[in-house]
Amino acid sequence: MKNIYRTILVCLIVACSAQTLSAQWRWGRYDDFERLDTVVSIPRHNSNSIYISDNDFYLRLNFLGLDLEIEDDWDYDWRSRRRRSRNIEYYEQHDHGTLKGLNFEYGLLNFLVNGEFPSSNDLYQVKPIGSTFVGLNWNHTTHVAGSLYLDWGGGFNWYNLKFENAAARLDPNGGELNFVEQLNINSAIKSKLKVTYLNFTAVPMFDFGRGKRLVRVYEEDDVRVAFSARRGFRIGVGPYVGLRLSNKAKYIYKNDDGRQKDKDKGGFFINDFRYGMRLQMGINSFDMFVNYDFNELFEDGNGPQLNPISIGVIF
Predict the structure, then answer these.
(1) How far is CA 8 from CA 15, 190, 199, in A?
(2) Helical residues (DSSP H) of the chain, grouped into ranges
(3) Per-residue pLDDT at 66
């Protein structure tokens, strides 16, 4: 009988809230009635970023799973004449529509030359820890059918290549790029190449958790903050393309005048476009990626044949 009453109560609440809200999420079962009042705070379908009514203001940031809600007159405890503080948890299911969010990616970057990493004799060998890949992407997760989703979006990627030999220099003179070692300095500190791309990615994902998320809500007075974490295992492979926006080499060394820093924004025969395949997988709140560029970093015949490869995590 309790389950029947509980089901009737859920239907009444959803029916009342459906007149003004169209849910982006579908809801699972709850263990208590306290969690049901969050239903009325879901943003509208296809605009799940902001909801405003006469007495409340709701903003879904979708960055690192963060929601922020500020309201004027909800959860007021009339008996104690003060607002109530509490923590609640519930699950939500994404099985239709598109969710939007801002993803931050960070990983390690290296090269492959004919399927192998450069040797210590190559001046273009990079530091395995110091060379990094950084990405900032406006991501969309679209439900296709069943457990199939599409992660797609665009943003900016940065290649930060720190060469193992701090005296290595990029020399574009002579119609091609050559790596040379500068020996007329007292102490070489850093040799670095930075390349910035505008990037677009489309990765079909099999999400065996069907978009399930665990949401933790913390309420204090008239402010509500919610953190969400995905549940289950997901994996997918898809293409990406990138357009080079800029490149810059930076050299730091010491000479008789002290610490020096040189920057060179000249042409290094870097390809204007990059394209490759991306492996993306995750379990619960942890996601990682592997990117491999099919085309070489430098133009064919104008530089060493280097295919960038990166591995990292998604926040």
Answers:
(1) 11, 68, 49
(2) 2-17
(3) 54
